[in-house]
Design brief:
Layout lengths: L3 H8 L20 H19 L21 E2 L1 H11 L13 E8 L10 H4 L5 E9 L4 E9 L25 E4 L2 E4 L3
Parallel strand pairs: 1-3
Antiparallel strand pairs: 2-4, 3-4, 5-6
Protein name: SCP-like protein
Keywords: Signal
InterPro entries: CAP_dom (IPR014044), CAP_sf (IPR035940), CRISP-related (IPR001283)
Amino acid sequence: MKSYFVVLFTVLGIVHANGDYEKCSKNHGIDNEMRERIVETHNGYRSLLAQGLAFMKDGADSLEASKMRSLVYDCEAENSAYESAEKCSTTSSPTSTYDENLYVIEEEDGDVSDPIQEVAWDTRTKVGCAVAKCNSGKATHVVCHYTPKEEAEGKLIYEMGEPCSRCSTYGDFTCEEGLCVTKQK
C-alpha cells in the first residue's frame, strides 16, 4: 500500500501558494515555493484529520480533534532537518529539540515509510523540511522536523472533540477549516 506521504510529495508539485522565507537563506533542496507547499500540504492533512475526514490505516475515518493547531514553517527546523538528511541514515533520528519524519525514496520503487504520527500531534506549531540525495543519487532522503517535541509514551496524539472547540487553550486563536490558527496582530 502506498503511503500518504507519496501523495503528500506528489501534491507538492501541484499546490500553488505564496510565502516569504527570507530567514531560510540556505538551500537545503527546498525553495520558497516548496516551503509553502509543505505547510499547505501538512495543514491540509491536519485539517482533514481534525474534521474527522482523514482515512486511517484500517480504512476507518479519523476521529475529530478539538484543538489541532495549524503549522507554520520554521527555518531553524529546516536547518536541523538538513543536518539529519545529509547523514543519509535510513532510520529516523529525532533531536533533543525536534521530532522527525524521514522519508527515503528509493530509485527502484518510489516507496516511502508512513510515519503519520509526527504530523498528527495537535500541539505541533512548526515544521521545517530538507532534501538530500544519498546512495550516489539512487535515493532521496526527505526529512521534516516538528516542534514542539513530544514524548509519545502514554499520551494521546490529539484530543478528540468538535473541531476548534478547545482552541482557547492556546490563547487568541481563530478556527479555519478545523484548525486553531493564531490571530494576526
